[in-house]
Write a structure and sequence with these properties.
CATH topology of the largest domain: Rossmann fold
Distance between the termini: 32 Å
Strand content: 15-25%
Radius of gyration: 21 Å
CATH superfamily of the largest domain: HypD, alpha/beta domain 2
Largest sheet: 6 strands, mixed
Oligomer: single chain
Number of strands: 11
Number of helices: 17
Strand order of the largest sheet: 4-3-5-6-11-10
Order of helices and strands: HEHHEHHEHEHEHEHEHHEHEHEEHHHH
CATH architecture of the largest domain: 3-Layer(aba) Sandwich
Length: about 375
C-alpha cells in the first residue's frame, strides 16, 4: 500500500472537502469520464460528502460498456467458428449480445480464452500454428499501445494465423459529442488520468475553449478525486474554463511519446459506434493499411447488422450522464450482475455494477 495509502488518508481528504464547501456558491454538475473513478466515488461515498449543490454524473468511461452490440455479435460469430481460438479480456466474455454471450459460446465447446494481454494472444498463435487466433482489441487510448506492439510483432514474425477484432475508442471525441447534445447539462469534466498518461493533455485545450468548460485531469484515489472536484469548482466559481492537471505524479503535458508513436504507426482514426450513444466521427482506432491483413473483420469478411438494445435498458442515457443507474426500472430486479441486460451492469467498471455493489438504494 506504499504510495497509495497517503491518497486515501481521511484527514487529507477532509481538508479538501472543507475547502470545497467553502468555495461552492452555485449548483454545478460535474461528469467523471472514467469508470474506475465512478467506482471509487461510490466505494468511498464521495458524493454524500460533497455540498448538495454539486452533482457528480457518470460518463461513458468504460470501454466494455461502450462497445456496441454489433461488435459483440461479430465477436460471437468469430468465436463460433470451429477453426478459431478467440481471445478476450475477461469482462467481454459476459457482455450480452442479441441472444447470448461469449461464455455461452464457450459452453457450447468453442475455443474461447481469457487473456490478460494482447501478447498472450500472440503467443497462443505461435503455439498453435494450425489454429486461427483472434484477439478482441477493446479499450481507450490506455491499452492501444500494447495492442499496437502486439500486432507489430505478429507482422515482424510473419504470422498468418493471427488477427484482431478492433473496437478501440478515443475519449476527446466522446466528450465533444456529449457537450454538443442539446440535452447536456454538464458544467465541468474530470478527465481520465490513465488516458492522459498516454496521450497527454493538449487534446483537451480546444474542447475547454470551445465549450467554455473546465476539464481537470484526475487520478483515481479519494484524494485525487476530491482535489479534481475542488479545482473544477474553483474554476467554475471564478468563471474560468481551462485544462488543469491534478494527476501530476503520472501525467505529463505531452503524454508518453513512444507509446503515441506506436499508435500512430499501427492505427488510423476512424468513425466508431458507441453503445447507447451512436456513431461519433473520428472517435475510434482501426488498423491502417500496412497492418490490414491482421484485421479480423477484413480477413473473415464480417459485415455488421444493427442490433437493438433491450427496450427496458437505459444504459445509453446512463453513459451520457442523463440518468443514474437506479433510475432504470430493471436495476437490481431484471438486471443484476448475475443476469445483466446491458454492459454497464456486466463490466467491473460499469456504473450500474458500481451502484449495485455499493449503493443500491441511492436516491440522489
Amino acid at each position: 500500500m506504499k504510495y497509495i495509502s497517503e491518497f486515501r488518508e481521511a484527514g487529507h481528504v477532509q481538508k479538501i472537502l472543507d475547502a470545497i464547501h467553502r468555495i461552492t456558491n452555485h449548483d454545478w454538475r460535474i461528469m467523471e469520464i472514467c469508470g474506475g473513478q465512478t467506482h471509487a466515488i461510490l466505494k468511498y461515498g464521495l458524493q454524500e460528502l460533497l455540498p448538495e449543490k454539486i452533482t457528480l454524473l457518470h460518463g461513458p468511461g468504460c470501454p466494455v460498456c461502450v462497445t456496441p452490440l454489433v461488435m459483440i455479435e461479430k465477436a460471437i460469430r468469430l468465436a463460433s467458428r470451429p477453426e478459431v481460438t478467440f481471445c478476450s479480456f475477461g469482462d467481454m466474455l459476459r457482455v450480452p449480445g442479441k441472444d447470448r454471450d461469449l461464455l455461452s459460446v464457450k459452453a457450447e465447446g468453442r475455443d474461447i480464452r481469457m487473456v490478460y494481454s494482447p501478447m498472450d494472444a500472440v503467443q497462443i498463435a505461435r503455439d498453435n500454428p494450425g489454429r486461427e487466433v483472434v484477439f478482441f482489441a477493446i479499450g481507450f487510448e490506455t491499452t492501444a499501445p500494447a495492442v499496437a506492439m502486439a500486432v507489430h510483432q505478429a507482422k515482424e514474425s510473419r504470422m498468418t494465423n493471427f488477427s484482431m477484432l478492433v473496437a478501440h475508442v478515443l475519449v476527446p471525441p466522446a466528450i465533444k459529442a456529449i457537450l454538443s447534445s442539446k440535452q447536456s447539462k454538464i458544467d465541468g469534466f474530470l478527465a481520465a488520468g490513465h488516458v492522459c498518461t498516454v496521450m497527454g493533455v493538449q487534446e483537451y485545450n480546444p474542447i475547454a475553449k470551445k465549450y467554455q468548460i473546465p476539464i481537470i485531469v484526475t487520478g483515481f484515489e479519494p484524494l485525487d478525486l476530491v482535489q479534481g472536484v475542488y479545482l473544477c469548482i474553483r474554476q467554475l466559481e471564478e468563471g474560468r474554463a481551462e485544462v488543469e492537471n491534478q494527476y501530476l505524479r503520472s501525467v505529463r503535458i505531452e503524454g508518453n511519446l513512444p507509446a503515441r508513436e506506436w499508435m500512430q504507426k499501427v492505427f488510423r482514426v476512424v468513425d466508431r459506434q458507441w453503445r447507447g450513444i451512436g456513431t461519433i466521427p473520428n472517435s475510434g482506432l482501426g488498423l491502417n493499411d500496412a497492418y490490414l491483413i491482421f484485421d479480423a473483420e477484413h480477413k473473415f469478411h464480417l459485415s455488421g447488422e444493427e442490433v437493438a438494445e433491450p427496450e427496458i435498458c437505459i444504459s445509453g442515457q446512463i453513459l451520457q450522464g442523463l440518468q443514474k443507474p437506479d433510475a432504470c426500472p430493471a436495476f437490481g430486479k431484471a438486471c443484476t450482475p448475475e443476469s445483466p441486460l446491458g454492459a454497464t451492469m456486466v463490466s467491473s467498471e460499469g456504473a450500474c455494477a458500481a451502484y449495485y455493489k455499493y449503493r443500491r438504494s441511492h436516491a440522489g
